Amino acid sequence: MTDSGNATSEVRDRLWEAVLDGDAHQAAAVLHRGLDAGLDKETLLLDTVGGVQEKVGLEWAANRITVAQEHAATAVNERAVTALLPPAPAADGPERGRSRGRVTVACVDGEWHAFPARLVTEVLQLRGWQVDYLGPQLPGSHLIAHLHHTRADAALLSSSLPARLPAAHAMIAACQAVGVPVMAGGRAFGLDGRYARACGADRWAPDARAAAAALEAGMAAPDPTAARQAVDDLPHLADQEYTMVVKSRPQLIERTLADLDKHLPAMELYTDVQRERTAEDYAFIVDFLATALYVDDAGLFTDFLLWTAEVLQARSVSARCLPSGLNLLARQLHDFPRATAMLRGGAAAVAARFDSDPGDTT
């Protein structure tokens, strides 16, 4: 009898080697050998391909593979999945059996990390669902038009970046307004689904198997006339801090970089590429600050800052400079108590982790 755990681990290790080598043909061959060893397609998709894709992200964050290698690895995984799973028969073809129902899977507007949604799509199709996979970066208006056209039983929205949560909230509300229940999934919605609930999703699923189980259990259509909290009417948004941070985003980034030039001597030695990367880092910081204000959760912002600091350290950039920039940003937002508290708290958390002075801006 085949030990499925050992077989899965072995296939995953071999797939990792093929993916790292950029060899899509070998990756497909590895998956087909897994089938021959008795592993089912769902296991291969989630526990081998999904496991390898997660490792790709971790290796990139640890600076053990480059951005180019990360992109190439994802492309190899995509091609391997396609080779493992031939195209589904046409919806009206004689070879297609009766489906469990029809659902739409899409990424939130602004979300480019589509691979998790692709895996969910393939698993649902294996389980007998008709799935319309709409891919990454889908504008909400296009999603609603599609739902009107297909009369989907449910919409499954995926997002990996918490910075997309305001867009996710708007898309969830729009789907429900036309009577389509929404299931949210992906790291953006929190490890426990707290942000899916904050955005009003009907269900949250931590992974593809849970998503399939929730669909099989049934998702009732929302009542479009029921009272739901408007996207722009969350109680904590009355202070306008979220709106003002979003509107002043370019100025906040530009002023922070200018202040860093004055207060951080090391900036004088930065190359053009290093300055560009620093600008990108602070753009993300402002985006995550805005999202934390939107969902009223300082922990979301602090977790992002600690992750950013770890990535900087892995790239031989001292994380000790981060609290200085955060405090300079806080000075610009001194009239915004929630934003200031999040920035000061984040600076203190990074300083504590990396043994620097949280109040130092010199």
CATH homologous superfamily name of the largest domain?
Answer: Cobalamin-binding domain
Low-confidence stretches: 90-97
**What's the total number of strands?**
5
- Based on helices, strands and strand pairing, what is the structural class? alpha/beta
- The Rg value, from CA coordinates, equals 23 Å
What is the averaged pLDDT score? 91
CATH topology of the largest domain: Rossmann fold
Q: How are the strands of the largest sheet arranged?
A: 2-1-3-4-5
Q: What's the number of domains?
A: 3
General description of the model:
The protein is of the alpha/beta class. The protein folds into 3 domains: 7-84, Methyltransferase, Methionine Synthase (B12-binding Domains), Chain A, domain 1 (Orthogonal Bundle), CATH 1.10.1240; 102-231, 3-Layer(aba) Sandwich (Rossmann fold); 237-354, Globin-like. It is built from 15 helices and 5 strands. It has helices at residues 4-21, 24-36, 41-61, 67-84, 115-126, 140-150, 165-177, 194-198, 208-217, 241-247, 249-263, 272-295, 298-314, 322-332, 337-354, and strands at residues 102-107, 130-133, 154-158, 182-185, 203-205. The chain has a 5-stranded parallel β-sheet, with helices on both faces. Helix 1 packs across helix 4, helix 3 (41-61) runs antiparallel to helix 4 (67-84) and helix 12 (272-295) packs antiparallel against helix 13 (298-314). The longest helix is centred in the C-terminal third of the chain and has 24 residues, at 272-295. It is globular, with a radius of gyration of 23 Å.
